[in-house]
Design goal:
The chain has 13 helices and eight strands. The chain has helices at 2-39, 67-76, 83-92, 112-121, 137-146, 159-165, 190-210, 221-234, 241-254, 261-268, 278-282, 305-312, 336-346, and strands spanning 45-46, 56-61, 79-80, 102-107, 127-130, 181-184, 321-324, 330-333. Strand 7 and strand 8 (330-333) form a beta hairpin.
Length: 357
């Protein structure tokens, strides 16, 4: 009889212990649910100074910030937020180690929970600068200098100083930045944009130079870049790139002057008014390819990858001349006589007498 009572007593104690464990576990879950839900009820209210518009406010989180540091930064930027609550909230949402640096536009009057999840996703403000094929260095520098959210480290630098800052040894900073769209965070140094674009160009140029056609009259990859920039400026239709490159390669091989207007225009510089005059063609600059044989001393624009490829793989052609047809394409000729006829037809609008057109 005593054994039954003793066994029943142990059973009751174990059952009581299980009930206690379930109680505390249930209480913990309930508190966790309340905490989790509460995070989405706690509003984060900004002051007026960092409100972008009626619906959004801007905050910035620095790289490698701890939760306590993030709380301090947000508070210093005018948000009514308790650091301990932010830390507890971030951990309860399991994003304590996932909050990403950057600039964020958060909904005004939104909850702390939503703000933490947005920061954990990295759903931040991004800016961009587009380098367009054919853009010149002074056009690019003007765009970068005027961008309102960049930190302007290079503004006022000379071209030589910019090259030194990038650890590059070129005669010019023209043409050395690969056309593309570069995305960045607000308050990023502008030097980073130049560095990324220069590195991208170096990578493309090196790859294409290593795979170029044999027998080209080009001694270095920089000369390939110069030729590509001329192809870029002279090509009205993408399908003509390789033929345009062939014309200039053929002229270089024969020792003929390139006689290309875009180099003359580049020699005039930013003051060019859009009207190329005969006097300009007679003006002696290093970029006047009517007066000087061979390539100019530097690129004359930012060439696209496609123009670099065309310069490295010109069409198989004996063409020495080309003229714009007025529809974006060009007519290519092997002889001066054929070229003059094409100029009459497409530029002077003179129809040959033996033509039925």
């Amino acid at each position: 009889m005593s054994r039954k009572i003793q066994g029943r007593s142990l059973f009751i104690k174990k059952k009581s212990k299980d009930r206690g464990l379930k109680y505390w576990l249930g209480l913990f879950v309930a508190l966790l649910v309340l905490l989790y839900g509460g995070i989405f009820l706690i509003p984060v209210v900004p002051n007026k100074s960092n409100v972008e518009n009626a619906a959004l406010y801007k905050v910035k989180i620095n790289p490698q910030s701890s939760l306590s540091s993030i709380a301090t930064q947000l508070s210093e930027q005018g948000l009514s937020i308790n650091g301990l609550i932010l830390q507890v909230g971030a951990r309860s949402l399991f994003v304590g180690s996932k909050l990403k640096p950057g600039t964020y536009l958060l909904p005004s009057g939104g909850s702390l929970g939503k703000a933490l999840l947005q920061i954990a996703r990295g759903d931040r403000v991004r800016e961009s600068i587009a380098i367009i094929p054919g853009m010149t260095i002074w056009q690019l520098r003007s765009i970068v200098d005027s961008h309102s959210v960049l930190i302007h480290q290079t503004k006022g630098m000379s071209n030589r100083e910019l090259l030194q800052s990038l650890n590059l040894n070129y005669p010019s900073d023209e043409g050395i930045f690969l056309p593309d769209t570069y995305i960045f965070d607000p308050d990023e140094p502008d030097l980073n944009i130049y560095r990324r674009a220069a590195q991208a160009m170096q990578k493309q140029l090196s790859q294409i130079w290593d795979q170029k056609e044999g027998g080209l009259p080009l001694k270095t990859s920089y000369e390939l870049l110069i030729l590509a920039s001329i192809v870029e400026k002279e090509t009205g239709r993408a399908s003509d790139r390789n033929m345009v490159a062939a014309v200039f390669i053929n002229r270089l091989n024969r020792g003929m002057p390139l006689q290309t207007d875009p180099t003359v225009i580049y020699g005039i510089g930013p003051r060019f008014d859009g009207n190329l005059r005969k006097a300009d063609l007679r003006k002696d600059t290093a970029y006047n390819t009517y007066l000087h044989k061979g390539l100019p001393p530097s690129p004359i624009a930012m060439p696209s990858k496609e123009s670099i490829l065309a310069a490295a793989h010109p069409a198989k052609s004996n063409a020495l001349f080309f003229v714009a047809k007025g529809d974006g394409s060009s007519h290519f000729s092997q002889s001066l006589k054929e070229h003059e006829t094409a100029v009459d037809r497409y530029q002077r609008k003179i129809t040959p007498k033996n033509s039925s057109n």
